[in-house]
Design a protein that fits this description.
With 525 residues, the chain is an alpha+beta fold. The chain contains 21 helices and 14 strands. The protein is globular and about 75 Å long. It binds iron/sulfur cluster (2 copies).
């Protein structure tokens, strides 16, 4: 019980940290745009009250900028209390896309990897906000049943996610594009929180998350975590030999099977708690009335219930993974990927000033940093956009001409060209353009640059003003409407059942009173 309370507290703290980090990013924008002290400029700005409340506390620190730099990012890669942390899946995908070992990145996965080696897939059950969301889908399925709407119960093989992990990494290597960074629930949820706080749309991610939720509610319970999630697959493989695991006291188990339906991983805790699917959530232990299940610490070899077949399956998956990863360490071809798929730190340490908005990306051997002043451009007023490009290994500044263009993104139809392709040569190590963004909305600053004989295009997302994320509102609103409809129906059905039961009791009482009850009994017999 205490463990479950602790788990819920950790899950709540993770959500709180994500919201706080997003708010700190917003505060950092206002601070570096030097508007946070100015009541007139801040009037009506997004998050005005909260950021102004934060200001005296952060400003009183010895080095506010260092503090803000030390707390940023998403669950994909973040700095928390100054410590670099990266999801092992992010590192694997980065390795696949860049075919380059970036040592600061490798150092940042040490803590998550050690935790997983010792405790297994606890990232899933204790940290991942997707887990919390998908646990809620289980409650929604119960509500549906209560409303006498029977959701389907299709099950898929757990092995699919290991295949998806291998195929996704291979695709990342071939296409040099991060796929997992766009669909991995912890990242998607982190970005949606950022987007809500910054007022940007991210409708695509919300659609994806809504689709997963819809599948889980109506078709297959815990579909994503059990059968799709590449992160869950990687954590499972890493935690295969975890010393901390659930164990069964065979002598105390009465075979009541109470632990089976409560397992979020969809396994049988009596026979499979040692499998890599178990995320050590401990829910089965709490539900075991006979106290037959418990956590144990011991050498993996001493565990008594690990099925041999599973061990062989894991070995095969690990072998396939290794075979896929080794060729990725060969020399890097030209490739590009967007900042959102990449760790955000370690790239700008040598740049002298603290820009207002900074987006890093990599292409081939180059690190690219886009900055903008002001951080959130004001529609109708010019914004200064600058690019800094340097070779990651030699630290040499890139000197070739590059092309920059700016587009306004459109939910429906083509993007609108705001700044047509403009060629720029570096001045003082910077490529600069001035652009006036016409209205509140999302924009893409796109640069094209020659890299190792190919032209690579890198898009950077930017927001001007305070756009209203209409599509996001519509999606969220639709879910709210469906939920209210199901809840009302559940209440109606409950009342109907109660009425029927009440009527039944009344009839029985009436029949008893008139002596018909005896006849009724005889009929039944
Ligand atoms: S399987 Fe994936 S989405 Fe599910 S809890 Fe684990 S990391 Fe999160
Ligand atoms: S076997 Fe127990 S500890 Fe493991 S995932 Fe299922 S409920 Fe959680």
């Amino acid at each position: 019980m205490i463990l479950q309370i602790l788990r819920r507290l950790v899950q709540a703290s993770v959500l709180l940290v994500m919201v706080s980090i997003a708010l700190m990013s917003l505060y950092a924008h206002y601070r570096s745009a030097r508007v946070i002290d100015d009541d007139q400029l801040m009037a009506g700005m997004r998050g005005e009250t909260v950021t102004k409340l934060m200001h005296p506390y952060i400003d009183a620190l010895d080095d506010p900028n260092k503090f803000l730099d030390g707390n940023k990012g998403t669950l994909w890669s973040m700095k928390f209390l100054g410590v670099d942390l990266t999801d092992p899946l992010a590192a694997a995908e980065m390795l696949a896309t860049s075919r380059h070992v970036h040592w600061p990145l490798m150092a940042s996965i040490v803590i998550p990897v050690i935790f997983t080696l010792l405790l297994g897939r606890v990232f899933c059950s204790w940290i991942c906000p997707g887990y919390v969301l998908f646990e809620l889908t289980g409650k929604l399925r119960r509500l549906l049943r209560f409303a006498e709407i029977q959701p389907a119960d299709v099950s898929f093989s757990h092995r699919n996610k290991y295949i998806f992990l291998v195929v996704g990494l291979a695709m990342a290597a071939v296409c040099a594009a991060p796929l997992f960074a766009l669909i991995y629930p912890p990242v998607v949820i982190s970005r949606i929180i950022h987007a809500w706080i910054f007022g940007t749309a991210l409708s695509g991610m919300l659609v994806l998350l809504s689709a997963i939720v819809a599948v889980e509610v109506f078709i297959s319970p815990r579909w994503w975590c059990r059968t799709i999630c590449p992160g869950g697959a990687l954590y499972g493989i890493l935690g295969w030999a975890r010393p901390v695991r659930v164990k069964l006291r065979k002598t105390m188990c009465t075979g009541c099977m109470d632990c089976v339906p409560v397992c979020e991983a969809g396994i049988n805790p009596i026979t499979q708690s040692s499998s890599i699917e178990c995320d050590n959530c401990g829910v089965c232990i709490r539900h075991c009335g006979d106290k037959a299940l418990y956590f144990t610490i011991g050498l993996p070899g001493r565990q008594n219930s690990r099925p041999k077949m599973k061990t062989q399956a894991v070995t095969k998956v690990a072998a396939v993974l290794m075979v896929c990863l080794v060729p990725l360490l060969t020399p890097t071809p030209a490739m590009a990927h967007h900042v959102l798929g990449l760790p955000h730190y370690s790239y700008k340490d040598n740049y002298p000033q603290r820009p207002t908005l900074e987006y890093p990306a990599t292409t081939g051997p180059y690190d690219v940093l886009m900055t903008s002043y002001p951080g959130i451009p004001v529609p109708g007023e010019p914004a200064n956009i600058a690019m800094y490009i340097k070779n990651r290994e030699s630290q040499q500044v890139y000197a070739e001409p590059i092309t920059i263009r700016v587009l306004q993104t459109s939910t429906f139809g083509d993007n609108i060209i705001i700044l047509p392709s403009t060629t720029r040569t570096p001045f003082d190590n910077e490529y600069k353009v001035h652009v006036t963004l016409p209205v509140d909305g999302e924009y893409v600053v796109e640069i094209s640059m020659p890299v190792e004989g190919r032209v690579e295009v890198i898009p950077f997302l930017m927001v001007a003003g305070q756009p209203t994320a209409m599509a996001s509102l519509v999606i969220t609103g639709s879910f709210g409407v469906v939920f209210v409809f199901v809840a009302i129906r559940a209440i109606q059905k409950k009342r109907q059942r109660r009425r029927r039961a009440g009527g039944h009791v009344d009839n029985e009482a009436g029949a008893f009173a008139t002596g018909e009850f005896v006849a009724l009994g005889e009929k039944v017999l």
